[in-house]
Write a structure and sequence with these properties.
Length: 233
């Protein structure tokens, strides 16, 4: 049975106010079911913006990239679960104990909540990884972080589609790959270093794509969303 492409698209609400977020959601309409709330919007508006989206029937991907000692992360995950978010992010670099604590907290508070581990930020390339002391390049690090994440119970990972095919080959299909850094053909990369088009991301093995500025800054957000959906098959 063919997957509804709307199940694959997450619209990033990388805006500064609840009003701006409402305007994007209204403009996109029924073309998207899921929205990312990240650090910018959450810092500006707090949990209320998440609660508003959830109460309206939207799914929320809370992208705060928790990275701290296990007890602190577990407590944060528990609080996020109370907001009824569908997905949230932690940093794989926090280590196995932290990842396990996050997963256990989610299972206790909201078993349907998906914990997704950030592997390597899509703004980084091999040169930047070397500058922070990581050897072997992006792909090697993504594979390493994915193995750690899945072995500690995470439901999926955040990775560029440039690594997705290798992840599917190495680890199979029974986990989510959520891909940021997706840009429709003709869009600029902005601050992303590893970008692909929506169709390329899905073909490579991504289960979900995250698209922000190409939609939120478009003159016609609904039209841009439909154009992206048409590429997802």
């Amino acid at each position: 049975m063919k997957t509804d492409p709307r199940q694959r698209l997450i619209v990033a609400l990388d805006v500064s106010t609840a009003l701006a977020a409402r305007n994007v959601v209204a403009a996109v309409g029924d073309s998207a079911h899921a929205y990312k709330v990240g650090m910018q919007l959450f810092t500006a508006e707090g949990p209320s913006v998440v609660q508003e989206l959830v109460s309206s029937g939207r799914r929320v991907f809370l992208d705060l990239k928790y990275h701290d000692i296990p007890n602190t992360v577990a407590a944060a995950v528990n609080q996020a679960a109370q907001l009824k978010v569908s997905m949230l992010t932690v940093h794989a670099a926090g280590g196995g104990k932290m990842l396990t604590a996050a997963v256990e907290a989610s299972q206790n508070a909201a078993p349907e909540l998906q914990i997704l581990a950030v592997t390597v930020l899509t703004s980084l390339d091999d040169t930047e990884l070397g500058k922070i002391g990581l050897r072997g390049g992006v792909l090697e690090q993504v594979l390493r972080m994915t193995a750690l994440s899945l072995s500690n119970g995470c439901h999926g990972v955040i990775a560029s589609a440039q690594e997705a095919a290798a992840l599917r080959e190495e680890f199979g299909s029974n986990f989510a790959i959520v891909t940021p850094g997706v840009r429709p053909a003709g869009s600029g990369p902005h601050d992303q270093a590893r970008v692909v088009t929506p169709a390329e991301a899905i073909a490579a093995g991504a289960s979900h794509i995250v698209v922000g500025r190409p939609i939120t800054e478009a003159k016609d957000p609904a039209g841009e969303t439909r154009a992206i959906l048409s590429q997802l098959g």
